[in-house]
Amino acid sequence: MRRGILLARILGICVYAWMVSTWSVSTRCAPQAATEVVGVAPAAQAEPKKAESKNAADWMVGVSPARKPADAPAEMKELVGLYRNGEKQIILLETGQMLNMEIWADAAHTTSPRPRFTLESRPDGNWKAMFSAKYGIDVTVERNVGGRVVALNFSNGVGRFVRADAGADPKNFYRVTPVKPLEQLRAEAKATKPPVEKGPFRKPELVELTNLDPEFHLDIRYANSNNFLSTPVYSEARAFMQRPAAEALERVTQKLKPMGYGLLIHDAYRPWYVTKIFWDATPVEGHIFVADPQKGSKHNRGCAVDLTMYDLATGAAVEMPGLYDEMSERSFPDFPGGTWRQRWQRDLLRKAMESVGFTVDEHEWWHFDYKDWKKYSILNVGFEEVGGKR
């Protein structure tokens, strides 16, 4: 008994030293004997791998669990996300009603091994990060005047970790300040011609999604000011895609409907000049989230769509681990943070889209490209020319 307590203390001290200094696990400190470390998130709380079921739709294989997880408590939902202290990063995530912390040393490699520890709630609204059965450090939640969580303060000299994402409230939207006035960028983009491409290409056949299926809901952000540029870019809130891609998207709605979900479209076909506006307006550090106009966008070809799901019962958009158009690592389709339900809904959408020939973008969970995009040329015609004026 005494030996077990001593081993747990040794492990706790080693983890603490590791957090303060190297921010990587020191295997030399870990005891060689097999001991149960209560503070470390147990395997039973990890998201289980779903076994193939004869009753489950083939396209859902890999979505875990088979049914939608219970929603996380509000006090956990407001905390989940990404936090930074210089180059040190931590992720808070919820699984099975437990709040866990992962050490995320390399944001570019989300599949790298990540040590995980549990956070235990305290009556005063703060938490304790448990590194062993007996050892943990206090975590104080820091809020702004509006009550939003802005940082986590770890005791014992570990330091303050500032929130590095938009949080749980969609109002905390990511925005950039255009490098030039938008009207100047628009005039320059419209005066520029798209890159010349070698064919042959299919004849374009753009169809309006809501004409194909009225159950497509629209939230075209670039037709209003609720976007990363804070100003309308489109003249109308409409969505078009090449017919094969649009019909594939309609099949996705049929797959999701029995589960209580519909598709909410944020963007589809995008004239080339708008892609140039986005590129020219965005600072260089944000270019991984916008397409290079010299290469053209799959949106320009009518074969890409930005979307999420909505609840058929309420009409409200579902929660995902990150916000649409958020320029942070939460946008990565494999980002491990968020709540269990949020990750499940993101993965369900991805599986449904992949089952009909779409591929998710490596940086944006909401962006999907249709398999035949190379067969269509870059287009630069406005919505009025495609679908007529309303």
Please describe the structure with a list of short key phrases separated by commas or semicolons.
390 residues; alpha+beta; Lipocalin; Muramoyl-pentapeptide Carboxypeptidase, domain 2; 2 domains; 8-stranded antiparallel beta barrel; 5-stranded mixed beta sheet; 8 helices; 21% helix; globular; disordered N terminus
Describe the protein in words:
The protein has eight helices and 15 strands. It is of the alpha+beta class. Helix 3 packs across helix 6 (272-281). It is globular, with a radius of gyration of 23 Å.
Write a concise synopsis of the structure shown.
The chain is an alpha+beta fold and 390 residues long. It is built from eight helices and 15 strands.
Principal-axes geometry comes out as globular
How many separate domains?
2
Number of helices in the DSSP assignment: 8
What's the SSE pattern? HHEEEEEEEEHEHEEHEHEHEEH
How far apart the termini lie comes to 78 Å
- Low-pLDDT parts are 1-16, 20-46, 48-56
Report the mean per-residue pLDDT as an integer: 84
CATH class of the largest domain: Alpha Beta
Spatial extent as radius of gyration: 23 Å
CATH A-level architecture of the largest domain: 2-Layer Sandwich
Largest sheet: 8 strands, antiparallel, barrel
Provide the structure class.
alpha+beta
Number of strands: 15
Helical content stands at: 10-25%
